[in-house]
From TrEMBL:
This is CaiB/BaiF CoA transferase family protein. Keywords: Transferase. The keyword Nucleotide-binding does not apply. InterPro entries: CoA-transferase_III_domain, CoA-Trfase_fam_III, CoA-Trfase_III_dom3_sf, CoA-Trfase_III_dom_1_sf. It comes from Ottowia pentelensis. GO terms for molecular function: transferase activity.
Length: 380
């Protein structure tokens, strides 16, 4: 009997994508029960070489994006590979692909060429800029999209140079948007019986991340500037120095600010006209930061953050990656997954009746989709 614990159990996904956005989408669908078959070229996904570190010649980068998939190697530029993909598409509910626009059409297996024979198929295309328009069909890469979508212009220290966000945020958000699009299309298909094209472009996803900077510019016409760790609209919403670990304060209202001031022994700051309202605190942020850091110069940052959270003031010690991944709450939330030699990040969406499951470590092989009655259980 087929495993029914996943919300997407029974959905078959043909993952023809590589690198990040598409594979992340496929992994999320697989975590929630879909039967995902990933087709890679004979030499494998490019990210197998994106290291170090490596295990058995395969980079950690690849391991982070290809859980809960079975792998088949096909040369899609060859007639035999194209025919095999046609057969797999006929069995699939969803196709994921992020080839350069017109590549699959050149091979005779593009969306418009296949939709007539496979009207229920949901086709998710991840591209850099979409298929048309002034930048249409151009290749897109995360950092380049961060640059052209304005993200680098608002990231970095005040007065410093534009800075890439330190993780592939555009690729990852595009993968999430692709998941949303696939789920919307699956829901709609349940009523109409028809598939459709899901268009997830890195450029669109990059622009969608511009809140509140886009909203600020739409209203004021003033060009957003880099503010380092500080929020452009709210203060104190910034990293402050302490006598130990730096602490991020995320004070969003007057009540929280009064609690903060009282806790650090400076209750009069909450009554100071320069800081008495959110707008005034934002305008006078330079003076306020200096006063806060002077008051905290002897404080233990980690203890301070815990104390502030306990009284209702949002705050957090600034942890490194190791500290974050080994934090007791990370483990409590099951955000670290182990399967044999494989360790990865857990699924962030928790469903009460149909939770994510982890059934295939990366690199598991398979020649096709599982039969509908195949057993496919595994540890959560």
């Amino acid at each position: 009997m087929q495993n029914k614990t996943g919300a997407l159990a029974g959905i078959k996904v043909l993952d023809l994508s590589r690198i990040l956005g598409g594979p992340l989408c496929g992994q999320i669908l697989g975590d929630h029960g879909a039967d995902v078959l990933k087709v890679e070229p004979p030499q494998g996904d490019d990210t197998r070489a994106w290291g170090p570190p490596f295990r058995d010649g395969v980079a950690s980068y690849y391991f982070g994006l290809n859980r809960n998939k079975r792998i088949q190697f096909l040369d899609l530029s060859a007639p035999e590979g194209q025919q095999r993909v046609r057969e797999l598409m006929a069995e699939a509910d969803v196709v994921l692909e992020n080839f350069k626009v017109c590549t699959m059409e050149k091979w005779g297996i593009g969306y418009e060429q296949m939709r007539g024979d496979l009207p229920r198929l949901i086709w998710c295309r991840v591209t850099g800029f979409g298929a048309d328009g002034p930048l249409g069909a151009l290749p897109g890469y995360d950092a380049a999209i961060q640059a052209t979508a304005g993200l680098m212009s608002i990231n970095g220290e005040a007065g410093g140079d534009p800075l890439r966000v330190g993780l592939p945020v555009v690729d990852m958000v595009t993968g999430l948007n692709a998941v949303i699009g696939v789920l919307l299309a699956l829901h709609e298909r349940a009523a109409s019986g028809q598939g459709q094209l899901v268009d997830a472009a890195l450029y669109d996803s990059g622009l969608s991340l511009l809140h509140p900077h886009a909203a600020n510019w739409f209203m004021s016409g003033q060009l957003p500037q880099r503010t380092g760790n500080a929020h452009p609209n709210i203060y104190p919403y910034d990293v402050v120095r302490t006598g130990g670990t730096p602490v991020f304060l995320a004070v969003g209202n007057d009540r929280q600010f009064a609690l903060l001031c009282r806790h650090i022994g400076r209750p009069e700051l909450a009554q100071d006209a320069r800081f008495a309202s959110a707008g005034q605190r934002s305008v006078n942020r330079v003076e306020l930061k200096a006063l806060l850091e002077a008051a905290l110069s002897q404080a233990d940052g980690t203890r301070l953050a815990d104390e502030l959270m306990a009284i209702g003031v949002p705050a957090a010690a600034v942890l490194n990656v190791e500290q974050a991944l080994t934090h007791p709450h990370t483990l409590h939330r099951q955000m670290v997954v182990k399967m044999g030699a494989y360790t990865g990040l857990g699924a962030p969406v928790k469903l009460s009746r149909t939770p994510a499951t982890y059934r295939h470590a990366p690199l598991s092989e398979g020649s096709g989709f599982l039969p509908d009655d195949a057993a496919d259980g595994g540890a959560r």
